[in-house]
Structure to design on (655 residues):
């Protein structure tokens, strides 16, 4: 696992000390809020509707057990006993007091963590597949490349004043679990005839103007990565619309100039700067790779697993739903659902965090991950340990078997916490999950992604949900707009608006109607919601959502 | 023509705790909106906002929020401000369970 080097360590410690001084000066009145606000935002501290919120970074969603224990300690000591895992693969605390925040940051620094936010119009955090280093379908672990990009872009002089912020995501697998097509630049590690290279996507993003990334290069040689990314950012830096913040993202530049023109300009710029790269970056990459080296995998038999699977239907159901294929024989990737029916998506108690940390220590080579779907992953568990692990999860109320199903809902904090929200999202998620649990049809429904945002900023990724829900304020009342047919994977698509929005009382029945209606429309139990939608188009689904209009038209 | 002024209260969040508070006629901050000064005159409201915003050592980001008169004092008219008087809906946390400053 990636270790801080001395520079990182000193830098984080110094930032904590600085922030402690800044908080003191704000409290004693020598700093105004106007002076203090940018400083607290840089340190991950936001002011929300009811309290402050501290956002702690979890780079590449990767944690060890000591770090998870520390997150539990923070939840218990400075918050109300829980933390919120988010789609940005980080954790947020909803109730810290201003005076406590420097202590929280100091505790985090003890385990090589921080809340420093890359802010401003720079290259933001680089994200990676949460199954990195474990997935069976992986060509290579994407985290070293992500870390190389982070190190290179931090303090890069040309990129401190970009037209807008810039986000990169990297995956090393065919299946896209990092939503790379909804990032400014998405990178996929590929292998052709035994040679490694990269597919480069550009111009994706959600928010106000959702767009799916387009292919800028289909197979970039490994050694060309940094100069090519630099060329791309540089072209956008020149062309990007600085006049209008809503048009400044690279997705708009690509849209306005066309991908061919962008490709031509990038190639031109690339030819200029390629000679200035002397290969040091490749040496650095090799060093980073060594830090992300895989654990020593065991080679024991899996009889215990096979017996429990055959004998225990509850274990079987959980295993079928929450395990993914690991690249090492005898291993599995465990997704721990933080989506118990009726609970807040992504919220874990301090006790649950400690249990997960313990399980990682005991059975998981000391590794945990946070997924952008707000679940916790144990990436490396030997199958013979799964029966015991399952029992421990059950005891901690963490054995919900719903990964990828209707109740595995992404929901942003919405108006229960977020100052920018136009409506609530958590209660909608809670009610939908509760309803499908009552109906006991989740496993019949099969794979379904429901994603909810409480405003146009789209933190809940609603545009790429099979069913997306966007909470709005319509004349002073909460109103929920449904989008259909979105997809966050390698076949990414932006969902289409279904029609008029629904009131807070009507949105859950509308979703129920939609899902039951899909079950009538599908040609077999194997055809998923998104497959049926693609086969039949939006019309039959709209008729289900708006039965009166359908009857009038008939 | 300018839009007619609708009644307001002044609200913000406390500097130390982040808790939502309302500005009273005595220039103090209360955790109960019912104790807020009810502002029906636009010029007076703007003046009071300036006075409220001078208290930067106590609170953060005062603003005018729509309100109407209830039985016990001002009450919010918009759901966002209503949530701020109670706390989140997913847990019994915040004002709905805590006694206020
Ligand atoms: C509660 C405090 C939060 C605030 C104030 C906030 C604010 C914002 C804003 C203003 C944007 C739009 C940025 C822009 O394009 O200009 C944004 C985007 C985003 N937020 Fe949040 N957010 C919050 C919480 C969260 C949480 C909890 C998550 C994860 C569950 C999240 C995930 C995202 C993501 C993924 C985007 C990017 C959408 C895109 O691709 O453009 N945010 N957020
Ligand atoms: S989508 Fe809107 S409401 Fe939800 S967390 Fe983001 S900014 Fe807040």
């Amino acid at each position: 696992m990636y270790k801080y080097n001395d520079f990182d360590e000193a830098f984080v410690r110094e930032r904590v000390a600085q922030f402690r001084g800044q908080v003191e000066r704000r409290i004693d009145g020598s700093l105004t809020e106007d002076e203090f606000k940018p400083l607290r935002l840089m340190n991950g501290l936001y002011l929300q509707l009811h309290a402050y919120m501290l956002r702690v970074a979890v780079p590449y969603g990767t944690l060890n057990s000591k770090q998870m224990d520390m997150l539990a300690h923070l939840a218990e000591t400075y918050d109300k006993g829980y933390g919120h895992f988010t789609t940005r693969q980080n954790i947020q605390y909803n109730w810290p007091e201003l005076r406590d925040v420097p202590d929280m940051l100091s505790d985090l620094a003890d385990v090589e963590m921080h809340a420093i936010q890359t802010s401003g119009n720079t290259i933001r955090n680089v994200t990676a597949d949460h199954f990195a280093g474990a997935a069976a379908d992986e060509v290579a672990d994407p985290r070293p490349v992500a870390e190389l990009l982070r190190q290179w872009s931090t303090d890069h002089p040309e990129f401190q004043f970009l037209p807008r912020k810039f986000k990169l995501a990297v995956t090393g697998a065919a299946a896209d679990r990092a939503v790379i097509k909804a990032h400014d630049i998405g990178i996929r590690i590929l292998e052709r005839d035994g040679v490694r290279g990269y597919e480069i996507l550009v111009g994706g993003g959600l928010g106000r103007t959702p767009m799916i990334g387009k292919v800028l290069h289909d197979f970039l040689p490994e050694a060309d990565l940094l100069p090519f990314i630099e060329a791309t950012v540089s072209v956008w830096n020149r062309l990007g619309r600085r006049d209008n913040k809503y048009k400044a993202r690279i997705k708009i530049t690509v849209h306005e100039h066309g991908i061919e023109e962008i490709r031509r300009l990038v190639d031109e710029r690339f030819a200029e700067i390629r000679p200035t790269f002397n290969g040091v970056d490749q040496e650095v990459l090799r060093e980073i790779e060594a830090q992300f080296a895989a654990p020593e995998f065991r080679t024991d038999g899996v009889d215990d697993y096979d017996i429990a699977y055959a004998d225990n239907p509850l274990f079987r159901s959980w295993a079928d739903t929450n395990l993914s294929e690991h690249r090492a024989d005898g291993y599995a990737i465990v997704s721990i659902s933080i989506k118990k029916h009726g609970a807040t998506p992504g919220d874990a108690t301090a006790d649950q965090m400690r249990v997960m940390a313990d399980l990682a220590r005991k059975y998981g080579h000391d590794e945990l991950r946070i997924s952008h779907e707000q679940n916790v992953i144990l990436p490396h568990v030997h199958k013979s340990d799964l029966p015991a692990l399952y029992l421990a999860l059950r005891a901690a109320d963490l054995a919900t078997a719903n990964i990828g199903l209707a109740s595995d809902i992404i929901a942003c904090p919405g108006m229960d916490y977020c100052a920018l929200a136009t409506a609530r999202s958590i209660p909608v998620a809670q009610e939908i999950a509760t309803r499908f649990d009552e109906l006991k049809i989740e496993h019949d429904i099969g794979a379904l992604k429901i994603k909810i945002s409480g405003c146009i900023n789209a933190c809940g990724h609603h545009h790429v949900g099979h069913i997306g829900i966007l909470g709005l304020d319509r004349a002073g009342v909460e109103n929920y707009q449904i989008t259909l047919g979105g997809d966050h994977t390698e076949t990414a698509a932006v969902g289409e608006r279904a029609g008029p929005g629904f009131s807070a009382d009507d949105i859950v029945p509308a979703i129920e109607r939609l899902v039951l209606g899909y079950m009538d429309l599908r040609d077999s139990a194997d055809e998923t919601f998104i497959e049926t939608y693609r086969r039949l188009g939006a019309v039959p689904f709209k008729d289900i959502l708006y039965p009166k209009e359908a009857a009038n038209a008939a | 023509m300018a839009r007619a002024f609708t009644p307001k209260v002044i609200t913000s969040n406390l500097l130390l705790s982040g808790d939502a508070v309302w500005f009273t006629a005595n220039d103090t901050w209360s955790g109960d909106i019912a104790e807020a000064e009810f502002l029906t005159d636009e010029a007076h409201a703007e003046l009071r906002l300036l006075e409220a915003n001078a208290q930067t050592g106590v609170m953060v980001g005062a603003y005018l929020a729509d309100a109407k008169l209830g039985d016990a004092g001002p009450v919010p008219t918009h759901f966002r401000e209503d949530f701020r008087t109670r706390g989140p809906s997913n847990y019994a946390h915040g004002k709905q369970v805590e006694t206020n400053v």
Observations:
- Chain A touches chain B at residues 26-27, 29, 32-33, 47-52, 80, 94-95, 97-99, 344, 347, 415-417, 421, 424, 426-427, 430, 473, 476-478 (CB under 8 Å).
- Chain A has four domains: 6-110, 142-291, 322-395, 410-553.
- Residues A 412-414, 418, 420-421, 453-455, 457-460 surround iron/sulfur cluster (ligand 2) (CB under 6 Å).
